[in-house]
């Protein structure tokens, strides 16, 4: 099987479009990924430090209000203004995420960001937490796409949004300095330790048990921080070692961050992690039931290079069963919307110019209706992969309703459905889709039918 | 302030007025070989059974739960048991014999205490042997597979989230209360043609169109697109989503539907459980109340089962919450239930009684109570329940949970 540019643009990229050339080889997908991050520059999303400063500013106002009751009105006004600005920023960051997928000439990068942010799913835990999710992705995921898996793992596990989400920031070792001081409110929390083994590294079928979870939780005690001050390691919360995790011993008497780094390094190159991640990448990009040879090929590369991600991507892209048609996966709602916008030739700037209420109405609402509310998956295992989970009666009804309503909502000039067919699907359109594009009663219906076609809905 | 009970009831009455109207044909009984109704509510995130239904008569309970118990006193329903105050609206049901529970129950899933595995296995109802292949269908679907004469709307998965419970070879309707699909005749024709060779898309769109038609008929009036959109935007976010699920379910159950399932979230109370579980239990109370009112006389032949993937640690943790545990509780409501009963064998809460010295010891298989409900409601044979529906389950000694 030879490399098929159109299949690759849809399977590994953000779709076809009138202004984008499909990649002609695996190298054409990898080369830009190794280069500068143009989309981060064009559609910026702040890093976590910015949100921390904002949270600090708001909490400072809260403290001031307590100390200076006579300035209440003025301080309330200032607080409201800051919160409104954050709400606008939240909408802007979502629009920028869409815009990057629409405009990019480096589409594999955006798809990898989606994959890894889902692998390391976090949920904003109420309050100002929702505003910290996009900056978490920008800080902990996006800069580490090309490096070693261990480096991304470390960035994620030391990020306050992850620590807050999986309750690590409150976990105190049972024999720690803090616990020995006898505070009633101290206790261990195993949530992060469990997900770190089950979801992030070894995978749930792997050979570990509750004892490993417990020992890892003891080792992780001390990781902490919050939305205002960022990450911190609290030595007093740490459990005196050593701890044994999956057959290896870590740490000594005095808790140290380096011991946590050591266990992350070992987990990142564990053969079970290599298999788990190889399979997950293959399932995400290629098929709900991937070719075992593809998984083996990627897992072997992971093992050979110690989880050097670029080499693993290379193993994925070069493998014949990742290049074959037909497209087998169902696009997730975000991928469907961005690929439709891209096929329509819509400029990302059209979305980043939207105000917050329009972002909610035009982007968040259809995403939720299709089953993918913005940054709100059900749990830390992220969004489901199987096509049957998305193409349900209500999910498909929402997709069709959105497509049929595109022009009225977005006030865009639609192309001739026959041209749109070529922009959206190139030479892979089936006879049924070609027929529908030609037989539709109106331009709106014609474009919508192409978007609704299984050809376009799959990737 | 608006009284929440009257608000819920008004909503329920609105949702069902069309169904009760004489213009609409009465519930067709032919679509399933029985007339009883079963609703399964999956409580995602692991409900703390020890906080929801409290063994206040156990001498060790108070010391395990110093913060949670002292701050939020429960409502006694017997010498031994008290309900969490957020369930106090259900006390009249208990007194009428329409509310029961099974305590110290769990699936056979042990030790890894993962939500995702725990929920998948609870819904699959099988595959508990380590290394066993994952079931791709749910036990409620397998129950439908063994009963002949099912029609498309016999079973309904309600809401937007995944329900492995009802996934499988038996046909099951699947819909979120706020969704509609309206197409021009030509667009509908072309879509059908477009999906003719893709069964996944084809069956989904046919069902979507059929459901939209039946919903429009049930409501009598069609909301316009903007109104619909407003509603769908609100319900997916608002706290009223759970009540919509229950209202829609009640409406379906008044018609051809006999089995329905949906899920409620918000049970994973690692921190500040006092607030978290109050909200979740209030939603569960709302759901039971809306079903009771919305079903009217049909409530008498209904059983609602609220099940969760596992319980939580017997002791409070350091952050005012509880961590993933093992034994938990299952709630049963409805006129068909042998109410006013505490099912299950109480293991005790002394350190030696606990599972792993940390969790409530499961003394019963939660699947056996679900099986008993299906046996009582639908007359299913035990051997079928123990082989096809819950392979490997042993129902011996399980109490009858249906009147």
Distance between the termini of chain A: 18 Å
Q: What is the radius of gyration of chain A? A: 24 Å
| Percent helix range of chain B | 25-40%
- CATH fold assignment of the domain at 36-175 and 257-389 in chain B: Alkaline Phosphatase, subunit A
Overview of the structural elements:
The complex is a heterodimer of chains A (459) and B (403). The mean pLDDT of chain A is 94. Chain A has 459 residues and is mainly alpha-helical. In chain A, strands 1-2 form a two-stranded antiparallel ribbon. In chain A, strands 3-4 form a two-stranded antiparallel sheet. Chain A starts with a helix and ends with a helix. Among the domains of chain A are: 109 residues, no CATH class; 125 residues, no CATH class. In chain A, strand 1 and strand 2 form a beta hairpin. Chain A is built from 27 helices and four strands. Chain A is globular, with a radius of gyration of 24 Å. Chain B is of the alpha/beta class and 403 residues long. Chain B has a domain of 273 residues: Alkaline Phosphatase, subunit A (3-Layer(aba) Sandwich), CATH 3.40.720. Chain B contains 14 helices and twelve strands. In chain B, strands 1, 5, 6, 7, 8, 9, 10, 11 and 12 form a nine-stranded mixed sheet that branches. In chain B, strand 3 and strand 4 form a beta hairpin. The longest helix of chain B has 23 residues. Chain B is globular and about 70 Å long. The N terminus of chain B is likely disordered. The chains are: A mainly alpha (459), B alpha/beta (403). Chains A and B meet through helix 11, helix 20, helix 21, helix 22 and helix 25 of A and helix 6, strand 7, helix 8, helix 9 and helix 10 of B.
């Amino acid at each position: 099987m030879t490399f098929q540019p159109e299949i690759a643009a849809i399977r590994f990229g953000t779709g076809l479009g009138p202004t984008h050339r499909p990649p002609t080889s695996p190298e054409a997908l990898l080369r830009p990924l190794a280069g500068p991050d143009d989309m981060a520059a064009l559609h910026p999303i702040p890093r976590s430090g910015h949100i921390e400063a904002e949270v600090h500013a708001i909490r400072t106002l809260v403290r001031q209000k307590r100390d200076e009751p006579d300035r209440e009105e003025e301080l309330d006004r200032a607080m409201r203004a800051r919160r409104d600005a954050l709400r606008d920023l939240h909408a802007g960051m979502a629009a920028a995420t869409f815009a990057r997928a629409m405009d990019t000439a480096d589409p594999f990068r955006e798809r990898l960001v989606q994959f890894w942010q889902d692998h390391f799913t976090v949920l904003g835990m109420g309050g100002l937490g929702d505003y910290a999710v996009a900056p978490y992705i920008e800080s902990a995921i996006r800069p580490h796409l090309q490096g070693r898996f261990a480096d991304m793992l470390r960035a994620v596990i030391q990020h306050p949004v992850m620590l807050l989400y999986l309750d690590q920031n409150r976990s105190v070792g049972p024999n720690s300095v803090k616990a020995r001081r006898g505070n009633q409110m101290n206790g261990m929390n195993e949530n992060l330790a469990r997900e770190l083994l089950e979801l992030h590294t070894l995978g749930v079928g792997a050979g570990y048990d509750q004892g490993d979870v417990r020992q890892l939780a003891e080792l992780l005690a001390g990781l902490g921080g919050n939305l205002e001050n960022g990450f911190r390691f609290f030595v007093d919360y740490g459990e005196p070692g050593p701890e044994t995790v999956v057959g290896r011993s870590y740490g000594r008497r005095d808790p140290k961050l380096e011991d946590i780094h050591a266990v992350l390094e070992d987990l990142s190159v564990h053969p079970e992690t290599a298999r788990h991640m190889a399979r997950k990448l293959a399932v995400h990009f290629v098929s709900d039931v991937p070719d075992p040879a593809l998984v083996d090929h990627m897992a072997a590369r992971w093992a050979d290079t110690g989880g050097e991600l670029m080499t693993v991507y290379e193993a994925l892209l070069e493998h014949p069963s990742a290049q074959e048609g037909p497209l087998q996966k169902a696009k997730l709602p975000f991928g469907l919307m961005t690929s439709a916008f891209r096929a329509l030739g819509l400029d990302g700037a059209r979305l980043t110019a939207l105000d917050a209420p329009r972002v909610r109405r035009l982007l968040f609402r259809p995403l939720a209706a299709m089953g993918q509310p913005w940054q709100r998956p059900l749990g830390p295992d992220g969004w489901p992969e199987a096509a049957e989970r998305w193409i349900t009666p209500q999910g498909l009804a929402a997709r069709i309703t959105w497509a049929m309503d595109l022009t009225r909502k977005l006030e865009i000039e639609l192309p001739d459905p026959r041209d749109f067919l070529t922009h959206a699907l190139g030479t892979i359109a089936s006879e049924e889709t070609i027929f529908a594009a030609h037989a539709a009663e109106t331009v709106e219906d014609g474009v919508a039918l192409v978007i609704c076609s299984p050809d376009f809905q799959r990737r | 302030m608006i009284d929440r009970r009257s608000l819920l009831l008004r909503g329920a009455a609105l949702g069902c007025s069309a169904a009760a109207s004489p213009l609409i044909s009465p519930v067709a009984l032919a679509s399933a070989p029985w007339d009883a109704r079963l609703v399964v509510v999956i409580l995602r995130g692991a409900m703390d059974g020890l906080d929801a239904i409290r063994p206040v008569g156990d001498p060790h309970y108070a010391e395990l739960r110093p913060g949670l118990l002292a701050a939020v006193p429960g409502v006694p329903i017997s010498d031994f048991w008290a309900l969490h105050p957020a369930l106090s609206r259900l006390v009249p049901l208990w007194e009428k014999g329409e509310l029961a529970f099974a305590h110290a129950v769990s699936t056979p899933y042990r030790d890894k205490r993962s939500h995702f595995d725990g929920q998948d296995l609870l819904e699959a109802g099988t595959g508990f042997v380590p290394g066993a292949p994952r079931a791709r269908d749910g036990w409620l679907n397998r129950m439908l597979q063994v009963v002949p004469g099912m029609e498309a709307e016999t079973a309904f998965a309600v809401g937007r989230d995944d329900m492995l419970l009802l996934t499988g070879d038996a046909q099951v309707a699947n819909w979120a209360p706020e969704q509609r699909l309206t197409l021009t005749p030509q667009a509908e024709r072309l879509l059908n043609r477009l999906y003719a060779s893709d069964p996944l898309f084809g069956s989904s769109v046919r069902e979507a169109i059929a459901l939209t038609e039946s919903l429009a008929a049930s409501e009598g009036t069609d909301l316009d697109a903007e109104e619909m959109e407003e509603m769908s935007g609100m319900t997916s976010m608002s706290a009223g989503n759970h009540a919509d699920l229950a209202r829609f379910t009640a409406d379906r159950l008044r018609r051809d539907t006999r089995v329905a399932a949906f899920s409620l979230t918000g049970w994973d109370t690692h921190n500040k459980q006092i607030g978290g579980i109050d909200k979740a239990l209030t939603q569960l109370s709302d759901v039971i109340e809306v079903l009771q009112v919305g079903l009217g006389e049909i409530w008498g032949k209904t059983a609602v089962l609220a099940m969760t993937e596992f319980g939580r640690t017997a002791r409070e943790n350091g952050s005012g919450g509880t961590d993933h545990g093992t034994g938990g509780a299952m709630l049963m409501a409805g006129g068909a239930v042998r109410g006013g009963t505490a099912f299950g064998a109480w293991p005790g809460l002394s350190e030696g009684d606990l599972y792993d010295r940390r969790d409530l010891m499961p003394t019963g298989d939660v699947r056996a109570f679900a099986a008993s409900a299906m046996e009582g409601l639908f007359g299913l044979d035990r051997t079928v329940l123990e082989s096809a529906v819950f392979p490997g389950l042993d129902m011996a000694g399980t109490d009858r949970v249906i009147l």
